[in-house]
Amino acid sequence: MGHHSCCNKQKVKRGLWSPEEDEKLINYISSYGHGCWSSVPRLAGLQRCGKSCRLRWINYLRPDLKRGSFSPQEAALIIELHRILGNRWAQIAKHLPGRTDNEVKNFWNSSIKKKLVSHGVPDLATFPDIPNPNASPEAFFSLNGNPNLIPSPQDHQLYLPSPTSMLQSGFDLANYNLEFVHFQPPPAPPLPDPSSYDPTWPWGCHPHLNQEDYVLGNEVGPIYIETKPINPNFSLPSFNSPSMAPMMPKLSETISGNDRILPSSSFPHEVVDPVARLPSLPSGSHPHAPHVPISHFDYIEAIISSLPS
DNA sequence: AATATTGCCAACCGCCTGTCG
DNA sequence: TCGACAGGCGGTTGGCAATAT
Question: Where in the cell is it found (predicted)?
């Protein structure tokens, strides 16, 4: 079990690769490509199984690998993608050029996970469900009370929605075509009137978008997801309706290597500090308020930058 | 200085899926 | 339709280096 036929036909070496083995593999693949991996070790003169050769090439020898430590931006993107995708390391790695799934996985398990846990941040991908957007504040992911997480001078709470509850809510994905738009980002819009915030809708909404356009996260944030209905007979819910909530994780599920998630560095304009953009709300406002238009990404970046190394 | 512990990460294991005959 | 096979994935392990005792 687990051993491919190529591994059973002959005695194969295991364990760390020697420089000589690496050289053989590089020379062979550089000249002929890998073709069928099961035949690579024989043709390259290696006492390894094809699977081991494939892994060695993909994770270590490929010329387009970045190597080196992860940048804070990469870490932030990994955390954001992990929140959306869970432990789908291969999918996450596709959004990090030069990084492998193994590398991302190791980085998560050895670094990020421990940091987040030690700072009291729950595993965002497995956070308990929220029955509906009107659930009690306790049902939301509250960061309040942890000064390390939100460097806000104001007494603001930030509630983030649970992804998993929405995954189970049966949104009809077939009616949507998910597009990750490489867009000319709009200039940072003026803050909407806080009173216009939908208290049940913790995600930011671009005030200038029409009914067919939706933004998940902050309109000036690094992850910009636009969806358009492809079924003309399908009636979209109203823009601020909480019933929109179920669609988000379903859409997120469709993220693939062909989709584009833009790092903040690709934005031609300055990314506005989401915290600095927090509106001042009158005291005694909605207990969930303010539902700030802050992207998870920005928030995670703030976390990462505030963590001790 | 010696030993124990911890953390990192390359590599392996087992399983799943797609393809092909 | 079925079985064999290869590719691919996530979970786990084991070796090594760094750090602590």
Answer: Nucleus
Closest of A247, A79, A70 to residue A176, by C-alpha: A247
A284 CB burial (10 A radius; 0-12, 13-18, 19+): exposed
Name the residues in A65-94 having a C-beta closer than 7 Å to nucleic acid strand C.
87-91
Q: Nucleotides of chain B within 7 Å of a protein C-beta?
A: 7-15
DSSP type of residue A61 = I
Q: Which domains does chain A have, with CATH numbers?
A: 5-61 (1.10.10.60), 66-276+285-309 (no CATH)
DSSP string computed for A182-244: ---PPPPPPPPPGGGS-TT--S---TT--TT---SS-TTSS---EEEE--TTPPPPPTT-GGG
A110 strand C contact, CB < 7 Å: no
Distance in angstroms (rounded) separating the CA atoms of residues A167 and A161: 12
Is the peptide bond between A290 and the residue preceding it cis, with omega within 30 degrees of 0?
Answer: yes
* Strand B reaches within 7 A of the A110 CB: yes
